[in-house]
């Protein structure tokens, strides 16, 4: 019997892929409508994404097969959804991030900031969190975590290193002198007040307590890196894939939205939320793993500075190994800063951007997009050499000259570009388009009309909680891909601004803090050892609550004037929302 169950478990993915489509077949057979066929595809893909019986990207290709065969959309129409402007933005942004990684610019920034902040326990955690969050705003959360955790553990090794013979010889650590002082002080205390003097801990007890403190500090530092990587990604549109899913879904479902979600508008909304969540997370991790002795946490108490000096020396030595900044790093830094400036000033909204001035259409709207800018900078990186222009001799062959490589080469892009995410984005856009074409969105909107009596603030809060729980066991990209079209239909049905429910869903999908399998940064931190699932769950549970509260604050405060959330926009009108032009004052009146 045990062997049978083992066999079923070993072949579980094959069984899921084979039986799941058959199990769901009654839906399109008993209800032979386009809406039911589209729902069949969406449910099938959702379950395959949740179980990961097939690779996520392969599951994302199912609309290319299902929609034409079910008469929902033609194959050419479905295929067009797989490479839209949002995909181009992701590709361009990833190319720039790969150039930053290739030339170790992110490592130089990280080490420099840590040298400035210092290595006192509370400040060390804050330093790693700030650096990791900043880097994950621009490069992959996974790459940031994989780079920062070895640095963190190298610093911990020096902080926790036992005193050496050299320390004793130089007088930095003299056990005999400490014992002598301790003995003299004990004798004085016994003479003055023998009854009240407490028993001193034995060396073994002190050592055990010290090991426990070191283990907790090590756990806290590992978690602070992986958590801040997830938190930092929400600040920019290209920081994490769910943000791009939101932009693509809004542009696909509401094509007349006027580019309401762009790099500048997203940064203005998400960056303050990221800063608040990051600081509150720092406070929580400090309390959980360092305790309430803030004087000790900030290095204000009486304690030896030798370990801190050693840890500081590790960071300084790593920074020195990078050598002086070279031409390639300077060029990548300049192009990266130029990219960010162009993103912010293309179409900022509160003043006329360069996109409106130089590349506008007949309506004055910018014909360029954030993806245009990202690809432009990426192409320039393929052109600019990595060394000051000039011919260099090929190593091992003095007679042959060789030009230096470019800042970015196709070999690097081919090896490191996550093409599966590009396909996954396209699959989400195809699902959203299929829901619209089949009429499933309209049907779903009609069924959600009773929610109109629920206060919008309560709806947003419940959505945050639901997504925060769901994303712990499902890919955050798959989570947003599944829920955003449903929430868009719901917003049209109950006449509230679509972004009022879609923004909380997107941010909450990044609150994957409780389980090692929830997100790659968590898995990397867990693989370094010293962490149990209960440690991560205990720390992550409170962070999830803090994250939901911060998102609720953001969506009911500064985001309302930014996105005009107090009224139902004209670009969200559909045949089923003809009466939604009335002012949506209940958003602001019911919000805290």
Automatic annotation (TrEMBL):
It is a multi-pass membrane protein. CDD domains: SLC13_permease. The keyword Zinc-finger does not apply. It holds the Pfam family Na_sulph_symp. It is found in: Membrane. Keywords: Ion transport, Membrane, Sodium, Sodium transport, Transmembrane, Transmembrane helix, Transport. One of its GO terms (cellular component) is plasma membrane. It comes from the Eukaryota. GO terms for biological process: cellular response to lithium ion. Residues 178-211 are annotated as: Disordered. Residues 178-195 have a biased composition (Basic and acidic residues). Its main location: membrane. The keyword NAD does not apply. GO terms for molecular function: alpha-ketoglutarate transmembrane transporter activity; fumarate transmembrane transporter activity; sodium:dicarboxylate symporter activity; succinate transmembrane transporter activity. Belongs to the SLC13A/DASS transporter (TC 2.A.47) family. NADC subfamily. This is Solute carrier family 13 member 2. It comes from Bison bison bison.
